[in-house]
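Recap for those who missed Tuesday's class. We walked through two folding examples back to back. For each one, the amino acid string is listed first and its predicted structure tokens come directly after. Nothing is annotated here on purpose, so try labeling regions yourself before you check the end of the notes.
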Amino acid sequence: MARPMKHPLRRIAITTNAGAEDAVAALLERQTGQTPGIHLDLRSGSVTVSAFVSPSPRAAMVLRKALRDGLAALRGFDIDPSPAGISLRVVPPKDWSESWKRHFRPIDVDGKLLVRPTWSRRRPKRGQVLVELDPGLSFGTGQHATTRFCLGQVAALRRAGTRQTLLDAGTGSGILALAAARLGYDPVEAFDYDPDCVRIARANAKLNGIGTVRFAEGDATRLPSRPAVRHDVVCANLMHDVLVAAKSRLTAHVARGGTLVAAGILATQFDDVAAAYRTLGWEVVEARTEGEWRSGAFRRAADGAGSRKKHSARTLPQKVG
């Protein structure tokens, strides 16, 4: 049985106008990590941009303030988001469950991986591994463009018959770490700044019968600068400012010849992220733009890392107090 959410589900909605709807949608998507819905009232001409979140009371206040500040900042770019009203209301659990059953569909990742909701009867193809998620546990279901890119990279980079390790920075629901474990990466480590995400990821691991992934609470900007083990693949589905601030520490965790997968970046900010990593020798080897988002896979020349040391808990960031 799925564990209930720690905090009630809420629908956050911003009332704006047709001229500003794209910018407001990008703002809401950036702050929530969810692809917003957009509704146009034909009679009044007003536009409502909305998404679903499950924040603690304090996090809800922080989110509301961040959105107010973001809407105010749009005016500096000659974008008027008026009337810019923000509402946050509790959604009855039954309404949320039925909504997800309509919109959360199985995702086939290059024939190698199937991500499906627990109520789906779709069977994996021969040789295809399966990850099940219950949206009652979290919102990281693979529907978001940045998560889909990361899933594709995790599957494409797996080399059968070889030992590969993976670090998932900003794990959210744990979907990338669980997919990696199913595909044969070992060891797999994952962390998130939000303790609720860590709890959710562990619950999803239990749902899938995966006990090999180590989840921890932590901050990408506080990763050990001299880790005991480096990883063949590091997935960092984080906001662009965190990616830039943590560039040296994330780099330190990528093994020689390894790949850094960076996502969670608005298309308008991707060049800034790429430039920041270029100063450390990284080059973009693959990139994809979908909607407002652009994600990339980075590689660089041999970094002089020696052979991997024994796996150690020091790989993960220290717990945030």
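Example two. Treat it independently of the first, because the proteins are unrelated.
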Amino acid sequence: MQITSGRVVDGRVELEAELPEGTEVTVLARDSEETFEVDAELEAVLLESIAQGQRGERISAEELFREMRSRE
């Protein structure tokens, strides 16, 4: 699984990353009218998480689920 961002241009989603032809994707669009607030601590965690992903420091979904199950 890969997460990437993009923008709708002329009715089509253009991604920042290149994906192989035929890749199936799911699009989750931000609702411009829906907002939420986070405190400074959570914002820092979110920004660091985004930075880690951009640096390529990520794990597969399988690894994530394994870690979550081991904490139960």
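Answers for example two:
The chain is about 35% helix and 10% strand.
Residues 6-70 form one domain.
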